[in-house]
Amino acid sequence: MDTDLHQIIRSSQALSSDHYQYFLFQLLHGLKNIYSVNIHYRDLKPENLLVNANCELKICNFGLTCTSSGKVQFMTEYIVACWYRSPELLLCCDNYDTSIDV
């Protein structure tokens, strides 16, 4: 992969509506695949979305992921992406689901 989405956002390169739609489509498709195997990603940010010259997007850095098995488990409120906190984390919920990524 050539760069990440953060670098593309910061660059002076103009993006069309088609670019935005294609990135969003790939992101949502990737999250669907991650959630289908019961994984919470928990660190979704532009720096963790790699992009190549063909505008193909890949999700990377699975360091904060956790599984959502049938067992009740403690989930930390601390997530590295401090510039965005989901309402579940702001309210200090210790049992959340995949909605924290969206």
Summarize the structure.
Keywords: ATP-binding, Kinase, Nucleotide-binding, Serine/threonine-protein kinase, Transferase. With 102 residues, the chain is an alpha+beta fold. The chain contains 3 helices and 5 strands.
Description of the structure:
This protein is α+β, with helices and mostly antiparallel strands and 102 residues long. The protein has a single domain, classed as Orthogonal Bundle (Transferase(Phosphotransferase), domain 1), CATH 1.10.510. 29% of the residues lie in helices and 12% in strands. The protein is built from three helices and five strands, in the order βααββββα. The strands form two sheets. A three-stranded antiparallel sheet has the order 1-3-4. It has a two-stranded antiparallel ribbon with strand order 2-5. It is elongated. The model has no long low-confidence stretch (mean pLDDT 80).
Task: Please describe the topology of this protein.
Layout: E1 3-4, H1 5-10, H2 17-36, E2 39-40, E3 49-51, E4 57-59, E5 66-67, H3 87-90
Antiparallel strand pairs: 1-3, 2-5, 3-4
Keywords:
nucleotide-binding, Ser/Thr_kinase_AS, single chain, 12% strand, Kinase-like_dom_sf, two-stranded antiparallel sheet, Prot_kinase_dom, three-stranded antiparallel β-sheet, kinase, Transferase(Phosphotransferase), domain 1, 102 residues, 3 helices, alpha+beta
